[in-house]
Design goal:
Distance between the termini: 45 Å
Largest sheet: 5 strands, parallel
Number of helices: 13
Structural class: alpha/beta
Oligomer: single chain
């Protein structure tokens, strides 16, 4: 069996490692458009902010491919799929045969067709990140176009480097897909206090030498302009090969396209009308596809999305149906704008279908578990929003957290798995991450994993 994977980003590299775990002998060839080894795109904001080095966000060690008998061609993008002969053809002219093919081509940054846009730098790849960092060393002011998750992380990262930053966003409030109006406004006020000027409801009409021209005529000054206005699935190969494509490459519950020998996963795949733009669904899809490819039986039924903002001094988690109002659901809400705090629960039929937690909160773990499992919501709603005020113990304490509690959402790692890993000899976060992959996704569970490992060491009298 010959498996070819097109794309070696977060989805493709995970698929390759999942397949190799299940089948040590299958011939695997992976093609990556970038010359770099795969890295965690989610953590690029940490690199931009200076809190992580590029080598710290690497997903697979360079020696992994040789030691696991995987052929990796970096910097040789696939240009054409020959479905008749079952070959892929790369830009260098190489023809590689396949029995099964996986498309994991991801997304490209959306570049608006406005005059002077070539002066701006997209924030999408590690190369982009390093270009922005280099420009920031001599820049006086920066403008970031786009107030979604990526734009906010880019703006906060540049502000941490000491640059005055203006964030431009077309919608009326930030992260309008994940947040309601008040949450978006509170987030904007928090960012403003951290050195990011927010301008919503504005559209860029051109990028000039000294700033970004707005449709209304204003010119926010900048000598560093960053594009973070969203992404678009890379679907050209599938289009030209005659596969079914809508917003992205259409797949069934086995992640197969309408050609049974071709799969698609990650941001380039559309399942049941949904294109997922987060890492957790891509990794869930990789596991299902790996099962099917290696002869197992598995079905992908969709993912429950939890969005986490990874920006220093800004705590945000949003999940599910956050936009629903009182006419459609029970809504429990608390707002303290002066403290940058906003919390909202959306409950239907006794179950949590959505939540927003902005500002420091010890409720994130419990609410994420409730949302993920679809279990009944306790009657004490205030206790859910403020666990410290409830009479019941806090579920997030390592002592009281059940072994089934999910600690790492991205990789589906439970407290019990961390405990088992610790008992097998893993005495620090790095060892736990190596064995379970916990902390290697969005990184927001690192404190929780560190707390559990520390608690286990303390309970057993182990010094580290």
């Amino acid at each position: 069996m010959r498996l070819v994977v097109v794309g070696n980003g977060m989805a493709g590299s995970r698929l390759v490692s999942e397949v190799r775990t299940r089948d040590p002998h299958m011939k695997i060839t992976v093609f990556g458009a970038e010359t770099r080894h795969p890295y965690n795109r989610v953590l690029l904001s940490n690199v931009l902010a200076g809190s992580s080095r590029p080598e710290q966000v690497r997903l697979l060690d360079p020696a992994w491919y040789a030691s696991h008998h995987v052929e990796a061609a970096f910097g040789d993008a696939v240009a054409h799929l020959d479905r008749d002969t079952r070959h892929v053809v790369t830009e260098s002219g190489r023809r590689e045969p396949y029995d099964l093919l996986v498309l994991a081509t991801g997304s490209d940054a959306i570049v608006p067709p406005i005059p002077g846009v070539e002066r701006a730098v997209p924030f999408r790849t590690l190369d982009d990140c390093e270009r922005i960092i280099e420009a920031a060393t001599s820049a006086r002011k920066a403008v970031v176009i786009g107030g979604g998750l990526l734009g906010i992380e880019a703006a906060r990262g540049l502000a941490r480097r000491g640059l005055p930053v203006t964030l431009l966003h077309l919608a009326g409030h930030l992260m309008e897909r994940q947040l309601d109006v008040e949450a978006g406004e509170v987030l904007g006020e928090t960012l403003n206090g951290l050195g990011v000027e927010i301008r919503t409801g504005v559209s860029a009409s051109g990028v000039e030498e000294n700033g970004v021209r707005l449709d209304a005529g204003a010119l926010p000054e900048a000598d560093l302009d960053v594009l973070a206005g969203g992404v678009r699935p890379v679907r050209r190969l599938a289009d030209e090969a005659g596969l079914e494509v809508r917003r992205a490459v259409v797949v069934d519950d086995e992640l197969r396209t309408d050609d049974p020998s071709i799969f698609a996963i990650g941001e380039c795949a559309e399942h049941d009308g949904t294109v997922y733009g987060l890492v957790a669904p891509a990794w869930e899809q990789a596991a299902v596809a790996a099962d099917v490819i290696t002869g197992g039986k598995a079905l992908y039924r969709g993912s429950r999305l939890v969005t986490r903002l990874k920006a220093k001094s800004v705590e945000l988690a949003a999940m599910g149906e956050t936009q629903l109002g009182e006419e459609h659901a029970e809504v429990v809400r608390f707002s303290h704008r002066a403290r940058g705090t906003y919390r909202k629960l959306v409950i239907q039929d006794g179950r949590l279908v959505g939540a927003i937690l902005l500002g420091e909160s010890d409720a994130v773990g419990t609410l994420t578990q409730l949302f993920d499992r679809g279990g009944p919501v306790p009657g004490d709603r205030a206790g859910l929003l403020f666990p410290g005020l409830a009479s019941a113990p806090v579920a997030d304490s390592p002592t009281l957290m059940p072994d089934a509690a999910k600690v790492c959402q991205c990789n589906n790692v439970t407290k019990g798995q961390i405990r088992a890993c610790w008992e097998a000899g893993a005495r620090d976060v790095a060892a736990v991450a190596s064995a379970t992959r916990a902390t290697t996704g969005c990184g927001t569970c690192r404190d929780a994993v560190e707390g559990i490992v520390g608690w286990l060491c303390e309970q057993e009298g182990v010094s580290v």
